[in-house]
Write a structure and sequence with these properties.
A hairpin with a 7-residue loop joins strand 6 and strand 7. The chain is α+β, with helices and mostly antiparallel strands. It is globular.
Length: 171
């Protein structure tokens, strides 16, 4: 992909979900080879009800002029799935930023930033007060990317395999 190629970012529609799910699973397989490539995670298995049919959840995708998915980002309510973080988000309306993926051939073109800007605007419009996400130190540039967007490191897990870092920001 050339840097001058035009792309558009929009909310994913139901008829686009198979293509978007395929893209997400492809990137997920690349960056998390230790996970099953054959089993969809619950949010992708129930994509419509999880992201498209809820007022407080959404998925955006970046599309090339030829309608190829170049990147994705999702927003859903944070569900307290990490017990060690319960004290941080109990009194807040917190959104979780998920599946911010950009095609390797389209990285460093600002797609991730533009996807996050759309997700951030959605979160403000819906009334979320805080954003949560986690990333992994083995993903090149991920931690610094999120910190430049205003996220602060909340807690780093002591796990040599996953190297998970939890971050958040107030809106």
């Amino acid at each position: 992909m050339k840097s001058q190629e035009v792309y558009t970012i929009k909310k994913v529609q139901e008829d686009e979900s198979p293509q978007v799910i395929d893209f997400m699973m492809s990137i997920r397989s690349e960056i998390f080879p230790m996970l099953s490539k054959d089993q969809l995670p619950p949010d992708l298995l129930h994509f419509q009800s999880f992201y498209l049919q809820r007022k407080n959840a959404i998925v955006y995708a970046a599309y090339s002029q030829s309608r190829q998915v170049l990147g994705t980002i999702g927003v859903c309510p944070y569900d307290d799935r990490f017990s060690q973080l319960q004290t941080f988000y109990g009194d807040w309306s917190t959104a979780e930023i998920v599946k911010c993926y950009v095609d390797p051939q389209a990285r460093r073109l600002g797609i991730g930033t533009r996807l996050f800007q759309e997700a951030l605007q959605f979160c403000c419009d819906v009334g979320y007060q805080k954003l949560y996400l986690h990333t992994h130190l083995f993903l090149p540039g991920a931690l610094s990317f999120w910190k430049t967007k205003g996220f602060a490191e909340r807690w780093a897990e002591d796990d040599p395999v996953w190297q998970t870092v939890h971050l958040d920001m107030e809106l």
